[in-house]
Write a structure and sequence with these properties.
The complex is a heterodimer.
Chain A lengths: L8 E5 L4 E6 L8 E7 L6 E6 L4 E2 L4 E4 L5 E6 L8 E8 L15 E6 L1
Chain B lengths: L4 E3 L2 E4 L5 E6 L6 E7 L6 E7 L2 E5 L6 E5 L5 E5 L8 E8 L10 E2 L3 E5 L1
Parallel strand pairs in B: 2-11
Antiparallel strand pairs in B: 1-3, 3-8, 4-5, 4-9, 5-6, 7-8, 9-10, 9-11
């Protein structure tokens, strides 16, 4: 699976959009981009995933560049509860199971009041 | 619908002892994954079980082992405990086949402390 690069930490003001970047320059054509987050001492929570097209759900939006070498997770109106470590993962999903997702150290997003 | 459940929540052992952690996946999920998260570190993949078989293993010594039962629940065993085994152990589950979107559903973890 391709590796990812994320900033170690980021701050965002409450109520503003939080934009979390992820670089995955070695991604291959059949690899998906997944985002998870982990609130302190809890299990990680799935947020969103995509292949080529931009995706949106009730939690966030995922913007993938045309060359697929980077992506941005957008939390449109950040709240204090969004303070967490956000993990960007690239995975070749084959329908046979997530074969050992590799989580890096992620980005520690701190929402400031 | 119940989520992934793990037990015990906390476990304290001494060096050289054995620890057993348990995980019950979401109903209908056949795959179970184990991860280790030591303090200040990212999640390290340990083991993946599906349909009772070990499908993949992370870079951990053989004293980390596990199994999956016919009801798809799973155990993680850590033998000859070392201080550096102190960590949060997370279990996740997913369905297989066409229901699988690659999303993992995590439990809240079992915190193992080795003294």
């Amino acid at each position: 699976d391709a590796k990812t690069t994320q900033p170690t930490s980021m701050d965002c003001a409450e109520g503003r959009a939080a934009n979390l970047p992820c670089n995955h320059s070695t991604i291959s054509g059949n690899e998906y981009v997944y985002w998870y987050r982990q609130i302190h001492s809890q299990g990680p929570q799935y947020i969103i995933h995509g292949l080529k097209n931009n995706e949106t759900n009730e939690m966030a939006s995922l913007i993938i560049t045309e060359d697929r070498k980077s992506s941005t997770l957008i939390l449109p109106h950040a709240t204090l509860r969004d303070t967490a470590v956000y993990y960007c993962i690239v995975l070749m999903y084959s329908g046979g199971g997530a074969d050992g997702l590799t989580f890096g150290k992620g980005t520690h997003l701190i929402i400031q009041p | 619908e119940a989520g992934v459940t793990q037990s015990p929540t906390h476990l304290i052992k001494t060096r050289g002892q054995q620890a057993t952690l348990r995980c019950s996946p979401i109903s209908g999920h056949t795959s179970v994954y184990w991860y280790q998260q030591a303090l200040g570190l990212g999640l390290q993949f340990l083991l993946w079980y599906d349909e009772g078989e070990e499908r993949n293993r992370g870079n951990f010594p053989p004293r980390f082992s596990g199994r999956q039962f016919p009801n798809y629940s799973s155990e993680l065993n850590v033998n000859a405990l070392e201080l550096e085994d102190s960590a949060l152990y997370l279990c996740a589950s997913s369905p297989m086949g066409t229901l699988n979107t690659g999303e993992l559903f995590f439990g809240e973890g079992s915190r193992l402390t080795v003294l």
